[in-house]
From TrEMBL:
Keywords tagged on the record: Coiled coil
Full protein name: Reverse transcriptase domain-containing protein
Stored CDD domains: RT_nLTR_like (cd01650)
Coiled-coil annotated spans: 188-227
Domain (Reverse transcriptase) ranges: 371-644
Membrane-spanning segments: none
Lineage, opening ranks: Eukaryota, Metazoa, Chordata, Craniata, Vertebrata
Pfam families per UniProt: RVT_1
Entry superkingdom: Eukaryota
InterPro entries membership: DNA/RNA_pol_sf (IPR043502), Endo/exonu/phosph_ase_sf (IPR036691), RT_dom (IPR000477)
Organism of derivation: Xenopus tropicalis (Western clawed frog)
Length: 692
């Protein structure tokens, strides 16, 4: 079974006698539940890792049936299984356990309907694998130059010129690929016919002349096939030879779970289960279209809240720097920073496309971007996004709410927003509250960890009577922020007209479509939220959240925690907010009132029933029971991946000890990896940092 971890296949079916029971209650005939064995734990871990499922239990989730009878113990158990990959689950018609007749094991039947071709959408994508071909690069550059020469009359309309540039180049690239395929096929068919004729002549007249002719054509035919395979094979070999044993993305990929394509095989709809791909897409589209609909705003309360927050305003120098025109240097520097190998937006043009044509595209983009900053509308397709859905950990995959939407934006828009994000980044540390640690230069999550540990330690040493930590849970925080609130923030803090114009352009009429199981949905409007995938998005979210953090931090009625010379009330890492509550009876009503007031004009929603709280030692029981709105953690809370209890000494056991066990498990998996000793050493250095 360990070999399955290295398989790459669309569908997997395998079965046999595993000699373990999966469910200790359902898979044994005994009355007393048995202990889960180590073998069963290993089997469950492996199945979760490679995303396979027990077909019988999937179709019969509560049935008690058995595949083995022990004559010695006089008991029945279920220890034989047929596992299938997730992609086959919708096509299972039934799975049954037959009678034990011939041997002491029962046969298992699995009926799978032959999967019908599912509807698919074609999403054009730039052939990044040709970015190393000099012939291809020269072809694309020549195509762009010819297009610009033919359309110089439209240079005064950058939006129109750029809107037509992309489809023209897509067509030219498609033609190039078609020509390559056609030339290969012609050569292939010609050599195949010549080889067939040479073979017939060799059979009829086996002499030196026919032997040499057959051998010559056979070598040409083999060379043609080898060259086709070598294009990708050489690049992969070179890539693995150069980077396979060095610290980097390729080596780090060994530590990750298999990157299986998320496949939604069924959803729980209002009328029952939905298994058809088209209907699943429609159901998801309805959910997200409803989710992104605009809600009631309260601008009067919003302005009042901002005035009370004592927000820091930009200086004239900062505003001038932020609103300066885009330069050619800005564009070319940003293009160099684009990460290769990333999924493109709806237009299919990846980072490699812009890197190949950076000098040629810069003049086009320069006029395009500066016109946008002056208040002109965005170019066509700029505000369109393709949304892919990533399943949330430990959530029901049949519930639409269990998926995180990630927006894939076009690279031309990301270049502009990245330029503005780089300008905004140095300004944020001065204007944001010091308790916001994420996406702020010079601030790190380790500060939050140290604050929490210091607070717990000081609380236990002094044996204080009151103390609670609360980890607030914000529901889809990035996707809920009102666009009107973002505009109010920028205007109130004097960000300048050009950034305001850009924000209005970005969030005036943004549209998106979902891609689910390779099928695109209908387009719908995004009426709220900062799109995850945009370089400006996390910075705008920090600005949007800052008034709430300042209100909580500055409220004199919210009692602070003190450790020596430091005071603690709140720490935030983007939307991950941790509250230090020193007087729960007095502080909790103030906190709830402030948050509820903030949500009326921002769209943010707090899940109090999912916000975990932990009572520190020596804290009075009444603080824990009196009108307590948060979920009470039984043993620990988790913040930024670190587990905290009411005693600082338990931190090592909960975190480091478990990390060591995980590392030992991974080391056993890496035994078969084709790595040098140096590569293994680097891998050991990478892995603990990735999981701590």
């Amino acid at each position: 079974m360990q070999r399955l971890d290295s398989w790459e296949a669309a569908h997997i079916i395998f079965g046999g006698d595993m000699n373990v029971t999966w469910d200790r209650l359902l898979d044994n005939s005994g009355t007393a539940p048995t202990q889960t064995t180590d073998k069963a734990k290993h089997l469950k871990t492996l199945c979760k890792h490679i995303d396979i499922y027990d077909s019988f239990r999937y179709m019969n989730p509560t049935s008690k049936d058995y595949t083995f009878y022990s004559g010695v113990h006089k008991t029945f158990s279920h220890i034989d299984y047929i596992f299938t990959s997730q992609s086959l689950l919708p096509h299972i018609q039934k799975s049954e356990i037959k009678d034990i007749i011939i041997s002491d094991h029962a046969p298992i039947s699995l009926h799978i309907q032959n999967p019908q071709p599912q509807p698919r959408s074609f999403n054009w994508r730039f052939p990044s694998y040709l970015s190393h071909s000099e012939d291809f690069k020269q072809y694309v550059k020549t195509s762009l130059a010819n297009y610009i020469d033919d359309n110089l009359t439209h240079w005064d309309n950058p939006n129109l010129l750029w809107a037509a540039t992309k489809p023209v180049l897509r067509g030219q690239i498609t033609a190039y690929l078609a020509y390559r395929r056609k030339q290969f096929n012609i050569k292939y068919m010609t050599l195949q016919q010549e080889l067939s004729q040479a073979y017939i002549q060799l059979k009829n007249h086996n002499n030196k002349e026919t032997q040499n002719k057959y051998k010559e054509i056979k070598n040409l035919f083999d060379t043609l096939l080898t060259e086709k395979a070598q294009l990708s094979l050489d690049y992969k070999r070179n890539k693995y030879f150069r980077w396979g044993n060095k610290t980097g993305k390729l080596l780090a990929s060994i530590t990750k779970k298999q990157n299986l394509q998320p496949h939604i095989h069924k959803l729980q709809g209002k009328q029952g289960w939905i298994t058809d791909t088209k209907k699943i897409t429609e159901e998801m589209t309805q959910y997200f279209q409803s989710f992104y609909d605009l809600e009631q705003d309260n601008p009067t309360e919003g302005i009042k809240f901002l005035q009370e927050a004592h927000l820091t305003k930009l200086t004239i120098e900062e505003r001038n720097l932020l609103n300066a025109p885009v330069t050619e240097t800005d564009i070319q520097t940003t293009i160099k920073k684009l990460k290769s190998g990333k999924s493109p937006g709806p237009d299919g043009l990846s980072a490699e496309f812009y890197k190949i044509l950076a000098p040629e595209l810069t003049p086009l983009l320069l006029d395009l971007y500066n016109n946008t900053l002056q208040g002109l509308p965005l170019w066509p397709e700029a505000n369109e996004a393709r949304i892919i859905l990533l399943p949330k950990k430990d959530r029901d995959p049949t519930n639409p709410q269990s998926y995180r939407p990630i927006s894939l934006l076009n690279q031309d828009l990301k270049i502009l927003t990245k330029i503005m994000a780089d300008r905004l980044q140095p300004i944020l540390p001065r204007i944001l509250s010091p308790c916001q640690l994420n996406f702020t230069k010079g601030r790190h999550s380790v500060k939050a960890t140290r604050q929490i540990l210091a607070l717990i330690y000081q609380h236990n040493i002094e044996k204080r009577k009151h103390g609670i930590l609360v980890n607030l849970d914000a529901e889809k925080a990035f996707d809920r922020i009102f666009h009107a609130h973002l505009l109010r923030i920028l205007k109130f803090q004097h960000f300048g007209h050009q950034l305001l114009k850009l924000l209005r352009a970005l969030y005036s009429t943004p549209t998106a479509f979902l891609t689910i199981n390779n099928l695109n949905s209908d387009r719908f409007y995004i009426k709220k939220g900062t799109r995850q995938g945009c370089p400006l998005s996390p910075l705008l979210f920090n600005l949007a959240l800052d008034p709430l953090l300042r209100h909580l931090r500055q409220n004199p009625l919210f009692q602070e925690f003190t450790t020596k010379h430091l005071c603690h009330k709140i720490v935030a890492f983007a939307d991950d907010i941790l509250l230090f509550i020193g007087n729960p009876k007095q502080d909790i009503p103030i906190i709830l009132e402030t948050i509820n007031r903030y949500t009326t004009f921002t769209g943010l929603k707090m899940n109090y029933d999912k916000s975990e709280a932990i009572k520190l030692r020596h804290t009075a029981t009444s603080d824990w029971t009196h009108n307590f709105p948060f979920k009470k953690a039984q043993h620990h809370i988790t913040y930024l991946g670190v587990k905290f209890t009411d005693h600082h000494a338990d931190t090592y056991k909960l975190n480091i000890t478990q990390t060591i066990l995980d590392l030992q498990h991974e080391l056993n998996k890496w035994k078969t990896a084709s790595l040098t000793f140096l590569g293994r050493a680097y891998l050991i250095k990478i892995f603990p940092h990735a999981i701590v």
